[in-house]
Specification:
Length: 253
């Protein structure tokens, strides 16, 4: 009777270090047998082994579509707990530069469009309706790359945080077109700041991108149950989409 558990444990390798000395370590919340690696201390359930790389890549693609997390769990047959941990690891690996590729043209030829997510168009919710988080976007009009973004309130402090995330070549040389929000006027140099009316057509590119965000990121859809329960995941989901968006923009040339 003791031989079967020993055989089972010897056939399992650690998900992190690949070592085989594994011991039983109680059960999970769902009643599954938990294991622990004697070498590195990693805890895991044996079911984790069936989540192959192909399925992980599929989940990454599904995260870019307007699909709820529980919907992903049902389609690919993974637990919500595992999916949340996997998403956290994906978000941690995202580059801070948003996969932006700076133009090879001279700095004085660079022209950038930047517009805050307007009050009527790109507010978002975290945890509850009263907790509004505004998505600030900076976008290059020539390459259509998102060169900076920030999630916060509508204050000058948030505008400054967005400004610091914009590449230095754009900070020094670009002309920025925005709406009439005072926060922009206190951050962008006056000689390179153009205030545009909404019907001027000079902010069409970024307004169209705002609509794309609404349609593709379920956390931003109006009157939807797929709202973020944590600000960290909210920012991560938006950043993940922007990084993928920039890669496709670069690929299209």
């Amino acid at each position: 009777m003791l031989l079967y558990p020993l055989l089972m444990r010897s056939s399992i390798n650690c998900l992190d270090c690949g070592s085989s000395p594994i011991k039983l370590n109680g059960h999970t919340h769902y009643g599954k047998q938990n294991h622990q690696c004697k070498a590195c201390g990693r805890q895991f359930v044996n079911d984790s082994h069936h989540i192959k790389q192909e399925k992980r890549e599929l989940i990454k693609k599904m995260l870019l579509e307007r699909i709820s997390l529980r919907g992903i769990c049902r389609v690919v047959n993974v637990s919500l707990r595992w999916l949340l941990d996997f998403i956290a690891s994906v978000y941690e690996e995202l580059p801070d530069d948003l996969n932006v590729r700076l133009p090879k043209s001279k700095p004085e030829q660079v022209r950038v469009l930047r517009l805050e997510a307007e009050a009527d168009e790109l507010w978002s919710l975290v945890q509850r309706k009263s907790n509004k988080q505004w998505v600030w976007i900076a976008m290059d009009t020539e390459t259509k790359q998102v060169i900076g973004f920030h999630v916060g309130d509508r204050s000058r402090k948030s505008a400054m945080k967005l400004w610091k995330k914009i590449p230095t070549v754009d900070q020094a040389n670009a002309t920025f077109m925005t709406d009439d929000l005072d926060s922009y006027k206190k951050v962008i140099p006056k000689e390179r700041h153009v205030v545009c009316a909404k019907d001027s057509g000079k902010t069409n590119i970024i307004e169209r991108f705002n609509c794309t965000l609404r349609q593709r990121v379920s956390r931003l859809v109006r009157d939807c149950l797929s709202f973020s329960k944590s600000l960290c995941n909210h920012i991560g989901a938006i950043k993940y989409f922007i990084c993928d968006y920039n890669l496709h923009v670069i690929a299209r040339g």
